Amino acid sequence: MTRPGRTAPAKPRPPAPARREPLLRMIALARPRGARFALGVLLGAAATGAGVALLGVAAWLLATAAQHPPITALSVAVVATRALGVTRGVTRYLERLVTHDAAFRTLADVRVRVYQRLASTEPVRRFRSGDLVSRLVSDTDATQDLLVRGLTPPLVAVVTGGAAVAVCTALLAPGGLLLAAGLLLAGLAVPLAAAVLGRGPGRRQAVARGELSTALVDTLYGAPDLVAYGAMDRAVQRVRRADAELTRVARRDAGILGFGAGATALITGLTVWGALLLGVAAVAGGTLDAIPFAVLVLTALAAFEIVAPLPPVAARLGAVRASGERLFDVLDTPPAVDEPEHPRELPAGEPHLRVRGLRVRYGPDEEWALDGVDLDVPPGRTVAVLGPSGAGKSTLASVLFRFRDPDAGSVLLGGTDLTDLPVDEARAAVSGVPQDPHVFASTLRENLRLARPGAGDEELWAALRRARLASDVEAMPDSLDTEVGSHGSRLSGGMRQRLALARALLAAPRVLVLDEPTAHLDPDARDAVMADLLAAAAAAEGCSTLLITHDLAGLDRVDHIYVIADGRVVEHGSHAELLARDGWYRAAHTAAG
């Protein structure tokens, strides 16, 4: 780890993990519940086998009854028919119960993994919001689809299909071989053809679903601006095009399903007719009796129930595979922040924040966004970092908020490197108001309690007073229970910023970071909010404040100013000292009038 006065070389990012087959990775997610799925396969085999045996026994019963034997000769078959009927229903229910329970539990684990990965912020920033919703919902649910429909039925088909072929071979060898050939065609060749035909449409379906979700979200959330600029018709056309593409792909998918069902029906008919002809020839030749003949034909007919689910499953594999790729795109996004191998504790007291030789860049071939930045934020002081757009200020905020690790250099809090602290502890110690703070579609109370879930109303009002928002909230009919709307749409821009500040103050960080807090406000609101922010920061006991801004307003009230340009500190000092020098700060003040 880098210490003061030293500059570490840029940290190489670990290579991206080798791509594995998404379907195998999705199945591997169920490994902790492999025993349950094995039990489901056994129950499914028992249910399917009972169904085939039920028709075979029924054939024996009917053929025997046609010869008018004593009723006692049929009693065993009658009891077996009833038993098989009950067994089929019970085992099918248990199979559904066991496999769905295991699949839902696995799906819950996958959702938790996705949520945890999204909480690391990197995937949230990489994917579009609507597409991310599709990955989070539809693509994650594809795991359940694969485990329930794509894992158990093929294994059941192998077990029960082999048993049916063995029975038919025992009755008539040519008939058993013919059934084996038919089952292989219907259960292997047709699904393989359906999988090949469905691979392209399946991938396009996943992409089209994501595009439709993105278009809908963009249109709904951007409706006011789209209407204001007369662009709503174009947005609606985009939704219609995405819907038309998804419909077209769905029609192709339905055609493939129809092909699978038709091919299976054709193979079933040909196999049963073949078994019938072979059986008739065997009965005529005296090598097969009439009763085994009936059992052979109806068992062959029932055996195709075993492979009937396989072609539809195979046709869906392309879509499931594409969903798996999109799901693992999220899960495989490399972390921008690493947890320390040997975490340290933050020392007590009012820590001094020191940045030494900080270097950050976003790719091995890109320019340094921060190139050797040094700055100090002493305990209880207010320090500003000023610079034009693109100077590296937002990158500095990302490092301080622990949204990414430095590539070189160090950020020390009380002598402890931030990267040596657990990520959550570092974010609790250095926190504040990001450039675009999110206001949740809930009440003011719940938005504040996000920072401290157990906070009482007195603490909430205290934070609001420090942020100069208490009088506005008192004037609202529902006070703290006022609904703020989606993204805080029922609040003004200044109120949203003050709410974010109150939330940050409630979290009581050691260092309060304000990243471009007035970026989206008009000049009058900007000056008022900046004054309130600095006043609240100055009143915060045991808290240092770092203001990151491109705005010159209010900087005469801070203790020290650092000017950053092209990723480097070009000058620093107090407001008066910088105005006395011939540098960027004085030139900016002169230009501002």
UniProtKB/TrEMBL annotation:
Listed GO biological process terms: cell redox homeostasis; glutathione transmembrane transport
PROSITE patterns according to UniProt: ABC_TM1F, ABC_TRANSPORTER_1, ABC_TRANSPORTER_2
Keyword hit for Cell membrane: yes
Gene3D superfamilies found in the cross-reference section: ABC transporter type 1, transmembrane domain, P-loop containing nucleotide triphosphate hydrolases
Segments passing through the bilayer: 37-63, 69-87, 155-173, 179-197, 256-284, 290-308
GO cellular component annotations of the record: plasma membrane
Bilayer topology term: Multi-pass membrane protein
Molecular functions per Gene Ontology: ABC-type transporter activity; ATP binding; ATP hydrolysis activity; ATPase-coupled lipid transmembrane transporter activity
UniProt-listed InterPro entries: AAA+_ATPase, ABC1_TM_dom, ABC1_TM_sf, ABC_CydC/D, ABC_transporter-like_ATP-bd, ABC_transporter-like_CS, P-loop_NTPase, Type_1_exporter
Pfam families named in the record: ABC_membrane, ABC_tran
Superkingdom: Bacteria
Key words, A-Z: ATP-binding, Cell membrane, Membrane, Nucleotide-binding, Transmembrane, Transmembrane helix, Transport
Residue ranges occupied by any ABC transporter domain in the UniProt entry: 353-591
Compartments in which it is found: Cell membrane
NCBIfam families in the record: CydC
Sequence similarity: Belongs to the ABC transporter superfamily. Lipid exporter (TC 3.A.1.106) family.
Name under which the protein is recorded: Thiol reductant ABC exporter subunit CydC
Organism of this sequence: Marinitenerispora sediminis
